[in-house]
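Record RNA polymerase sigma factor SigS, 196 aa.
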Amino acid sequence: MTQNLKQLEQAFINFQQSRNRREQEQLFTFIVSQLHSSLSIKFKQMGVSASDIEDLIQELFIRTYLSLQTFDFTLNIPFEHYLNCMVRSLRNDFWRKRYAEANRNESLINEYVVRYKWNKSSNQTEAYCLTQAQSEQIRESLLYLSDLERSVAQLMLSDYSPTEIARKLNIKDKVVYNSIQRCKMKMRKYLNQHYC
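=>
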């Protein structure tokens, strides 16, 4: 294991000192192959789900690549220590982001519930107001009907059937049906003139 770490540390130093792009690519590929499995294990031990591990490892390799350009190897601080600090930082960022997403999702759900309830009550109020306005318009249109037509229309609005209306007003069914037709025509004309 220590031999592997020394090899890795030497690969870090060689990467930084190399000016050849192709050689840097080969060294970084070696670094990635050496670190990938150990990083997977570290992130699994930290409780990160398997679907997120690859994303975190890629993010760590990007950070490693960028930091290798400027890391000072003369301070005798092993790059592995710096790498462990990056792993810890990345893990903390991951869990902070997860926590923030969970809170945001919860507040979005709560906001939706509140908005839904408010819209529901608002729609009920609006529907009630529209119904009241329409009832008022119909009552106004009744004023332009004859007495018989008005009586028939009021009974129709009270959910009486034409046969029941005929019995109640002591008139023939045919007269009721004709009255209903005249009411519809007159009321439609009135409503179109005044409200459309």
